[in-house]
Amino acid sequence: MNKDNPVILAITAASGIIFGVKTLEFLLKNDFRAELVISSKAYYIAQHELGLALSHEREKIHENILKFLKIENKKENLKVWLDNEIWANPSSGSYKTEGMIIVPCSMGSIASIASGLAQNLITRAADVCLKEKRPLTLVPRETPLNSIHLENMLKLSKLGVNIVPPIPGFYGKIETIDDSINFVVGKILDASKIENNLYERWQI
User: Fold this and answer.
1) Are 100 and 135 in contact (CB under 8 A)?
2) Is the Cβ–Cβ distance between 198 and 29 less than 8 Å?
3) Are strands 136-140 and 34-38 parallel, antiparallel or unpaired?
4) What ranges in 17-169 are assigned the alpha helix state H?
5) What is the pTM of this model?
6) pLDDT digit string (tens) for 162-176?
7) Residue 70 forms part of a structural domain
8) CA max distance for the chain
9) Helix ranges (DSSP H) in 51-104
10) Whether pLDDT at 2 is above 90
């Protein structure tokens, strides 16, 4: 992976925002560049689940998320975009990236991507990854799944999209919530071809 090119990370309005935040933490701590887009509909969920205060201001999101992660020294590696900034860097195929991770990914976002509806920066950036044949990893957060959800994910999987439900593998000797989160984030990174040692791998 070329660290000169950023990884696009999107967080949509679904439960499990901690997985997106922890994925961002890994990328920044390991000197990857990240371009972050958080759905405006996810602000309340971030506050409710994590106590993470966000607003529709790029500078405030940038400041608060780095402060939440206690990695203010990594601010140069993080660029934040608002979901309505459809003209932003990730919306163009000529802008080089190492692909995109959407975590968590709402079923509405999956439906839009599967239908080619690039209505905001998140779905537009995903559409760019599809047309440019760049890695795209989606972490669906809904249960139970209905047939529409499954059909949309199958359609995207056939296009080469990585579908990574946030399901821990208990062979990883999971004892705490943090262990469970790290396992899922490790699998997300694995699918995106990003080396990591966040969980204990199967070995006999």
Assistant:
1) yes
2) no
3) unpaired
4) 17-29, 43-50, 58-69, 107-115, 121-131, 147-158
5) 0.96
6) 999 999 999 888 999
7) yes
8) 50
9) 58-69
10) no
